[in-house]
Amino acid sequence: MNIVVEEQKGIQFIRINGRLDGTTMQIVEGEFLELVNKGSKFFVFDLSELEYISSAGLRVMLLSVKKTRAAGGKIALFGLNENVNEVFKISGFSTIFPIFQTEEEALKFAAS
Amino acid sequence: MMYVLEILVFLLLIMMAIAFIFWKEWRRTVTLFNIGLELSSTIQRKDLLQIIMKTAAKTMNAEGSSIILVDEERDELYFEVAIGEKNEEIREIRLKIGEGIAGWVAKTGESILIPDAAKDPRWSNRVSTKVNVPTRNMICVPVITNGKTLGVLQVINKKGNKSFNQRDLRLLEMIASPTAISLENMFLYEALVESLETLRKTTAAKERMESELQIAQDIQRSFLPGSSLQMGGVELFACLFPAKVVGGDFYHFIPLDDKKLLICLGDVSDKGMPAALFMSGLMIWIQAKANSYHTPAEILQEINREVSSEDSTMFATIFLAILDVQTGQLCYCDGGHCTPYIIGNHGVRALEGIKNLPIGIFEDGGYGDQEVRLEPGDSLVLYTDGITEAENDQGQWFTTNRLFQVLEGCTASTPRVVTELLREEVLGFANGHPQSDDIAIMVANFDGIRANFHSKQKM
């Protein structure tokens, strides 16, 4: 798994590729918490290169939602492949995340 | 003639002098040899340090002696002094390397002879007052082996109110060299003892941990209701295979009254001990809420309220249903769990429906009920993603497709057979690749004939 974080106009782009599971979730958690502690509250997760997400991986996504809500911020996801989308759908997680097809739509939502 | 006699006396004196020198040299060799023997007589710290000090004092004709060791980790020197009337108490004194005469010797690795300690600026008053011996003169030499200073050896106050000289200095340096070897042996021995002790402790801790885990597994198993049940027209079989000793998958079945049976199966979003603890809590909440609320959605809503908190990200996917064992009517609530299957005369079909959130996500999460009717002969198949995500050596997954195929082959089998077949297929697929996720399976079959027979009997 690899994670790249970049900022555009006050919005943090978190791009994850590879597998997000019990082992790699800690890296994402660490990166995310660091951003939150620095005061960031608007996030766009680029999941277009994410191959797989496990239930432990979902925990870090849940953490991001909880922290963003607590900070009064916004979060948006885009680019989920078929497998990852299925996991979000089955687990009901698709109801707690604004999920978009494209980066532009996700950015528009997070910035509004 | 007189002249010859004088020469003879002179020669005799020279010979005696030479003999004396040889005798002294021989005595010194014997002394050093004996010192070597004495120093190698023990490897125990307490005895060895005593022998070193006694030997040095005796050989050097000194009032006292001490062996001061280097503590590499703390960059300090330390030595033990006996205090109290009968020397019964041992106190450790520590010096910074560089502090005092011993500290200077340890730092520079050079010997030092001090004819008058009181006049020497390197003399540490701190030590002098602590050991309570007025120091007149002293020799201090480094104890070195393989270029490493292990400590310093010092003698104080030559007996008979005399002072130490250069010859004494050389003698003490000679004593220092077998001392170094015996100290090095002592350190090696202590390191060995310490590593054996560490090994013993680690082994003991590991055994304790394993036995605690074993107990935890027994406790976790005791929360499960067993593996099979026959109630009215329903026959049920369930099993659980944790990937580690304990795990986060779970199932439950509770008869609520004569015709209502609660069944559920779920998966905590973690593995090992944290998941097992969360699972244990859930099992108790399921038991506690099952009788107080009427529908699966109400029960899940209540459990969710109990286990959700703002900071926690621990959650569990869960499928919970109440089955009428006389009619086959199934009321269920799907908390984000793997889609169940219904197998029977019609073949295999997925129980698609509204997906609610898993429990433990948000305290105020809403849950909704759905209904389906099991036809006579139908079986409800519940499972966790340990089945569909079981991996083989090539990194391939078992997948829902394979699950579907296996179920297609056993639509008429009993719950026990379906469960066992599924388990065997997954094991065969993994082909020895270690199980990375917990597996839970539950199959509940509704048999119309048995149900009718049962209800007729009651009438």
From TrEMBL, chain A:
Positions of the STAS domain: 1-110
* Extent of the signal sequence: none
**Entry's transmembrane regions:** none
Name the Pfam families on file: STAS
Family designation: Belongs to the anti-sigma-factor antagonist family.
What PANTHER family does this protein map onto? ANTI-SIGMA FACTOR ANTAGONIST, ANTI-SIGMA FACTOR ANTAGONIST TM_1081-RELATED-RELATED
Q: What is the name of this protein?
A: Anti-sigma factor antagonist
Supply the source organism for this entry. Ammoniphilus resinae
TrEMBL record, chain B:
Matches recorded under SUPFAM superfamilies: GAF domain-like (SSF55781), PP2C-like (SSF81606)
Tell me the domain of life: Bacteria
Query: What region holds the PPM-type phosphatase domain?
Result: 231-446
GAF domain residues:
44-193
Q: Which InterPro entries match?
A: Bact_Sigma-Reg, GAF, GAF-like_dom_sf, PPM-type-like_dom_sf, PPM-type_phosphatase-like_dom
The record's keywords, sorted A to Z, are:
Hydrolase
Stated name of the protein: Serine phosphatase RsbU (Regulator of sigma subunit)/putative methionine-R-sulfoxide reductase with GAF domain
Q: Which organism is it from?
A: Ammoniphilus resinae
